[in-house]
Amino acid sequence: MCLGIPGQIVAITDETRMMAMAEVSGVRREVNVACIALGDLDALVGKWALIHVGFAMSEIDEEEAAKTLEALRGLGEAQETLEAMAEGDKALEGTQ
Amino acid sequence: MKYADEFRDPVAAKALLDEISKVVADIGATAEKPVHIMEICGGHTHAIFRYGLDKLTPAGIEFIHGPGCPVCVLPMSRVDECVELAERPEVIFTTFGDAMRVPGTKKSLMQAKADGADIRMVYSPLDALEIARRNPEREVVFFGLGFETTTPSTALSIQQAAREGLTNFTVFCNHITVPPPILALLQDPHMVLDGFVGPGHVSMVIGTHPYDFIAQDYGKPIVVAGFEPLDLLQSVLMVLEQIRDGRAEVENQYARVVPESGNPVSMAAIADVYEARPTFEWRGLGEIDESGLRIRPKYAAFDAEEKFGIGYGAESRLVAEPEGCACGSVMTGRMKPVQCPQFGKGCTPEMPLGALMVSSEGACAAYYQYGGARAIEPAE
């Protein structure tokens, strides 16, 4: 929950709510991009960001994304985050 | 150097370690008279143990593990309040999974869930918002926990709920901030810190200026660090060089992610939604001035404390630590985890007695997980 995880913005899903689809370690998850948006949201597509509990907080380059993901895997944090995302999906359905 | 092979770049790690040894020798620090460096962030604590950095670096460096693990500094009374909220029949209580196993005086959220409370582990407050949209007849409470890394997410979620006019979404705000406990530690006459490794992702939000007082008013170096082991080694080296040169500055090793002035959108959302409480309780550290946040009156409709009359300050709930638990002493650096009589006996990651054993970012859990025999055996 404290460490962000890198993800790549693949599409804008809701301009009003500033939501985008991000791909995080092969998993797709809708995230809020208000904190990294500078004008045109479409310009974010293809960019990498550090994502904290569903909010893209800092744009990073692809190399930094790869290094960060490797460090998070080493700590077991990447797996924990992906599990938390899966739990979140179950929580919506009330099936935990 | 059995861990060194795991470094992404062992050659770079070796070079940094050699340089660290040289500077430690220049300073004249030894095992008997070490320099004390506090890593503030629990993620850094985890990384230090995971990569054995405390053993790879010279004996003249002693790492003191800071208060930067929000789960670990969560008082038992706050957990009791979460359970009380969660057990109301109309409530769906949503939380980061990290908080589920923290012991309360009667039970943890995990136990309350097993007893039938509707408690849901979510990844994001956005999930809680969506649960509120889908369940208009229920009250959805999100447990706002964490430092400045998670605070923007709840602030932006409350703003979004206000825009949508949601009437069944509240945040139980227990957010805390990093600088005040550092100030409290620096003011403690028993504390012997020589420098700090500053948190990376918190600083991504707030920038580096909130640490200026550490260098300017207290004459201590601080270096904001990334999470890779090489980042940490380099940051430790930068702290040591400042000590050697008699400098006290705020330096940014993690500039590729941390802008000096932070993230303006996040900080604006935090300022719009939250204000500092006059004081707030930290497990192990007691009351610290202006160290916690509460929801501003203009967002009172989204404040679980207002809606349900439960929370910090509603009534006095100071509770003693469990019998034999030394989390408070460990948190302030007065005791090593292995010196706690319950360590590895009455308190393990599977059955935690104290909060420092719950999270992988807690000093006790890190000692237990990575210390092996070295952790269980008393210090030499």
Tell me what you see in this structure.
- Chain B: InterPro entries: Hyd_form_HypD, HypD_1, HypD_2_sf.
- Chain B: This is Hydrogenase maturation factor.
- Chain B: Pfam families: HypD (PF01924).
- Chain B: One of its GO terms (molecular function) is carbon monoxide binding.
- Chain B: Keywords: Iron, Metal-binding.
- Chain A: It comes from Tritonibacter litoralis.
- With 96 residues, chain A is an alpha+beta fold.
- Chain A has one domain: SH3 type barrels (Roll).
- Chain A is built from two helices and five strands.
- A five-stranded antiparallel beta sheet of chain A has the order 3-2-1-4-5.
- In chain A, a hairpin with a 2-residue loop joins strand 2 and strand 3.
- The mean pLDDT of chain A is 93.
- Chain B is α/β, with parallel strands linked by helices.
- Chain B folds into three domains: 4-69 and 185-252, 3-Layer(aba) Sandwich (Rossmann fold), CATH 3.40.50.11750; 76-175 and 277-308, Rossmann fold (3-Layer(aba) Sandwich); 327-369, no CATH class.
- Chain B is built from 16 helices and 13 strands.
- Chain B has helices at residues 10-27, 42-50, 53-56, 76-86, 109-114, 125-134, 151-164, 179-187, 200-206, 212-216, 229-245, 264-273, 304-308, 327-331, 363-371, 373-376, and strands spanning 35-41, 61-68, 91-96, 119-122, 139-144, 169-173, 195-198, 222-224, 250-252, 274-276, 279-282, 286-289, 293-295.
- Chain B has a five-stranded parallel beta sheet. In chain B, strands 4-3-5-6 form a four-stranded parallel beta sheet, with helices on both faces.
- Chain B is globular and about 65 Å long.
- In chain B, 57% of the residues are buried.
- The chains are: A alpha+beta (96), B alpha/beta (380).
- At the A-B interface, strand 3, strand 5, helix 1 and helix 2 of A face helix 2, strand 4, helix 6, helix 7 and helix 9 of B.
Radius of gyration of chain A (CA) equals 13 Å
Spell out the helices and strands of chain B N to C: HEHHEHEHEHEHEHEHHEHEHEEEEHHHH
The low-confidence runs of chain A, each spanning 5 or more residues with pLDDT under 50, are none
Rg of chain B from C-alpha positions?
A: 21 Å
Give the integer mean of the pLDDT values of chain A.
Answer: 93
Question: What gap, in angstroms, lies between the N and C termini of chain A?
Answer: 19 Å
CATH topology of the largest domain in chain B: Rossmann fold
The coarse overall form of chain B would be globular
Helical proportion of chain A, percent range: 25-40%
SSE ordering of chain A: EEEEEHH
Q: Summarize the largest interface: chains and residue counts.
A: A-B, 41 and 51 residues
Strand arrangement within the widest β-sheet of chain B reads 2-1-7-8-9
Total domain count of chain B: 3
Overall structural class of chain A, as computed from helix and strand content, comes to alpha+beta
Order of neighbouring strands in the sheet with most strands of chain A: 3-2-1-4-5
Return the CATH topology of chain A: SH3 type barrels
Largest sheet of chain A: 5 strands, antiparallel
Shape of chain A: flat
InterPro entries (chain A): Hydgase_assmbl_chp_CS, Hydrogenase_HupF/HypC
Protein name (chain A): Hydrogenase maturation factor HypC
Pfam families (chain A): HupF_HypC
GO molecular function, one term (chain A): iron ion binding
